[in-house]
TrEMBL record, chain A:
Main function: Part of the high-affinity ATP-driven potassium transport (or Kdp) system, which catalyzes the hydrolysis of ATP coupled with the electrogenic transport of potassium into the cytoplasm. This subunit binds the extracellular potassium ions and delivers the ions to the membrane domain of KdpB through an intramembrane tunnel.
One Pfam family, short name: KdpA
Name used for this protein in its record: Potassium-transporting ATPase potassium-binding subunit
Lineage of producing organism: Bacteria, Bacillati, Bacillota, Bacilli, Bacillales
Family annotation (InterPro entries): KdpA
Highest taxon above the source species: Bacteria
Keyword Transport: yes
SUBUNIT field: The system is composed of three essential subunits: KdpA, KdpB and KdpC.
Residues annotated as transmembrane: 6-28, 63-82, 127-153, 173-193, 252-272, 279-300, 376-395, 415-436, 479-503, 524-552
Subcellular location: Cell membrane
UniProtKB/TrEMBL annotation, chain B:
Family, as annotated: Belongs to the KdpC family.
Subcellular location: Cell membrane
Self-association state and partner proteins as the record states: The system is composed of three essential subunits: KdpA, KdpB and KdpC.
UniProt keyword annotation of ATP-binding present: yes
Matching InterPro entries: KdpC (IPR003820)
Protein name, UniProt field: Potassium-transporting ATPase KdpC subunit
Length: 558, 204
């Protein structure tokens, strides 16, 4: 039954990829289409109110600048609201203002689509902050990432320009995220996710104790949290909390909400490239890596924790510490794999409590950061690996590498090298640095090799803009708030800007005609080479630290 | 002179560019951060008030005794017990200790739970004790246990309440929820609902 329900969810996803990808292509190809009639009016209204009347194509620099400036304005607004939330409206539970470094960490976390949370929603945020800051940033950060991905695709497929940032940004919100979020919100409420402005509920339990039950506008956050691959929970326990994720059915809806759009992007890219096989090739590489890592997690969690298995009780359910009975192993393993592949970072079971081998899955997916990936960023990263694969093959046969009919030369490769190397750099260096100081080491809550994994996971999650955590880590301190804040910024903006520059530079090149000697990038051979490149470059970088963390812990478990 | 003019022009257009970004941000903050959640709340409260307000459960006297989604702690041994919760089901917060699989404190906690189980349930061998009953849920608020975890408690409850075991077995079968759509998730028993039904039974 376990494997069957996983296969059914994957099958539903496969059915959704083509319609969703086609819809995204219609939205972003900027050719007149049916969606104009429904949403055109709202967009014109928004542009009129903003005074953005001329929206012509942008150079990569203007595109990047518009993207950055908009993010800065939104982050400033978020910072002010969180610092003043005690006195703002919709604060029925009397939540205090947020501390400075925690606010710094929180606003960066949400604008970078990371959603690492060093606070707990129940005690740290007013309803107004949950709505106007958290929910709002979930829309705008996802739309920012989406826009960048579309611009990158336009660049490498040789469109006239990268497009206009504001046009892409507003379209993502009006035509994709808002309508989908509204529908999913109402479905979730129907399936018992609360949506209210009333304060915490107080009841007397059967046992005669007083129980305070935190509640709030949960469903409207929950839907965009997954659609936008954001992942920050309304409550501390995130999607393990029965109010955020009451049943296996809501679990499947949340999985598909976060997975469908990233999985549809390769198909949209195929349409842009006027060669659907290009898109399917990328998709196949992602799906292969996904299934491999899902199997690892499912196998390890079903087998259970060896240290508990030896105690003589009935362990047929697998590793249940940190998991919910309604989900069991299959729905937990699938959620873990999708949330770290799509860099959402929501959790329906505690990753810190997973078996050592099981926890390699979320770690590996965030280290690779290109298996489906977060809003847009995953596709961009995978295409970056595709260009690298073409380059490596070109070196082997001694030809100038080409990708989609454009020569890949020194400038592009330098920028791609920056984008690839920044990821391990901002993970491994701060992990090592944290072990040199008590400020870092003091946060570790599990002894032994598991402690190393806790620190490593926190930086991998920040750098990949994922946001899940080994939550035992006592990370709400000035040291961790500042460190992870900076890592999230670098993880998001350095690679995005480098890759926009690649797109801008490819756009200026003359297309070279395809000949018999052209290395094809739309067949099974290329998909295989792409997977190998990802594994060799991406995985080998991190193998030593994975051996020190989870693998060593596994070997010591008896 | 010419140079000056074009400089002036570009600084004007830079300012208006920046103002446009601020205006766009303001419009989107209002749309996504205020209009959307409030509209969702209004629709939810009008059309699905019970679900939107926490799915509260009432007992036979009509008093609210909890939410069907949020677990409670049951200290009375003649009632069914739920899972381990490091926050003791205090639902103003959520979460667990996040013990790693090799954490000695967790392994100690489980050994203690097994010893306690032996004392309270001498008639049930520990090889039948399902792991979900002695592990901490992720949320600390898990309202469910597995049907097996309910069944192993029947001998103890039957001894303490005098209700025959086959009646309790029937109760467990009746409250067991199947997989969603017959496929997704696991079979489970809502502990609060089970105990509400049990208290009805013991009144008769």
């Amino acid at each position: 039954m376990g494997i069957v329900q996983i296969i059914v969810v994957i099958a539903i996803l496969l059915l959704l990829v083509k319609p969703a990808g086609t819809y995204l292509y219609h939205v972003f190809s900027n050719e007149p289409n049916k969606t104009d009639r429904i949403f055109g009016g709202v967009e014109r209204g928004i542009f009129k109110l903003s005074g953005l009347n001329k929206r012509e194509g942008m150079s990569w620099k203007t595109y990047a600048l518009s993207f950055l400036s908009t993010n800065i304005v939104l982050v400033a607004f978020g910072y002010i609201v969180l610092r003043l939330q005690a006195g703002l409206p919709l604060n029925p539970n009397g939540i205090n203002q947020m501390e400075q470094t925690l606010t710094f960490n929180t606003v960066i976390s949400f604008i970078t689509n990371t959603n690492l949370q060093h606070y707990s929603g129940e005690t740290g945020l007013s309803y107004f902050s949950q709505m106007a800051v958290i929910t709002m940033l979930m829309f705008t950060s996802a739309a920012s990432g989406f826009s960048v991905a579309v611009a990158f695709v336009r660049g490498i497929t040789g469109r006239a320009t990268l497009g206009n940032f504001f046009e892409d940004f507003v379209k993502s919100i009006v035509r994709v995220f808002l309508p989908l979020a509204l529908i999913i919100t109402l479905v979730l409420v129907g399936l018992q996710v609360p949506q209210t402005l009333k304060p915490t509920i107080q009841i007397t339990t059967m046992d005669g104790q007083i129980q305070q039950i935190a509640t709030g506008p949960v469903a409207s956050l929950e839907s965009i949290k997954h659609l936008g691959t954001n992942g920050g929970g309304f409550f501390g326990a995130n999607s393990a909390h029965p109010f955020e994720n009451p049943s296996p059915l809501t679990n499947v809806i949340e999985i598909l909400s976060m997975w469908t759009l990233p999985a549809a992007l390769p198909y949209m890219y195929g349409l842009f490239a006027k060669n659907k096989r290009q898109g399917w090739g990328i998709f196949a590489a992602m799906m292969t890596l996904f299934v491999l890592l899902l199997s690892l997690n499912y196998y390890a969690e079903s087998s259970g924790n060896p240290a508990i298995n030896s105690m003589g009780i009935d362990v047929s359910q697998g590793s249940m510490e940190g998991k919910e009975v309604r989900f069991g192993i299959p729905q937990s393993a699938l959620f873990t794999t999708v949330t770290t592949a799509a860099t959402t970072g929501s959790v329906n079971n505690m990753h810190d409590t997973q078996t050592p081998l099981g926890s390699i899955t979320p770690l590996a997916l965030m280290m690779l950061n290109n298996v489906f990936g977060g809003k847009g960023v995953g596709l961009v990263n995978m295409l970056m690996y595709a260009i690298l694969a073409v380059f490596l093959c070109g070196l082997m046969v001694g030809r100038t590498p080409e990708f989609l009919g454009r020569k890949i030369e020194a400038r592009e490769m330098k920028l791609i090298a920056v984008a690839i190397l920044i990821h391990p750099l901002i993970i491994l260096v701060p992990t090592a640095a944290s072990f040199l100081t008590d400020l870092g080491q003091g946060a570790i809550s599990n002894p032994g090799n598991h402690g190393l994994t806790q620190v490593l996971y926190e930086y991998v999650s920040s750098a990949a803009n994922n946001g899940s955590g080994f939550e035992g880590l006592a990370d709400n301190t000035t040291f961790w708030n500042m460190m992870t804040g900076v890592i999230m910024l670098l993880g998001r903006y350095v690679s995005i800007i480098a890759l926009l520059a690649v797109a801008g530079s490819l756009l200026r090149k003359q297309p070279v005609p395809e000949t018999i000697g052209t290395f094809r990038t739309d067949n099974g051979l290329f998909t295989g080479i792409l997977i190998a490149t990802v594994l060799i470059i991406g995985a080998l970088t991190f193998l030593p630290v994975v051996v020190l963390g989870p693998i060593a812990e596994h070997l010591t478990l008896r | 002179m010419l140079n000056n003019e074009s400089n002036q022009q570009s600084s004007v257009s830079k300012t208006s560019y920046f103002i446009s970004i601020v205006r766009l941000s303001a419009v989107l903050i209002i749309l996504c951060g205020i209009v959307y959640p409030l509209a969702s709340t209004a629709l939810a409260q009008v059309f699905m008030p019970s679900q939107a307000n926490g799915s509260l459960l009432k007992n036979s006297r009509g008093e609210v005794v909890g939410s069907e989604l949020i677990g409670q702690s049951f200290t009375d041994p003649s009632l069914f017990q739920g899972r381990v919760s490091s926050i003791n089901y205090k639902a103003e917060a959520s979460g667990s200790n996040n013990y790693g699989p090799s954490n000695p404190d967790m392994l100690q906690r489980i050994s203690d739970s097994i010893a306690q189980w032996k004392k309270d349930n001498p008639e049930v061998p520990i090889s039948q004790l399902p792991v979900d009953l002695i592990t901490n849920s992720g949320s600390g608020l898990d309202p469910h246990i597995s049907p097996a975890a309910a069944r192993v408690q029947i001998p103890r409850i039957s001894n303490l309440t005098g209700i025959p075991a086959d009646q309790l077995e029937e109760l467990v079968v009746k409250t067991t929820e199947g997989r969603d759509l017959g496929l997704f998730g696991e079979e489970r028993v809502n502990v609060l609902k089970l105990n509400l039904a049990l208290s009805e039974l013991s009144k008769k």
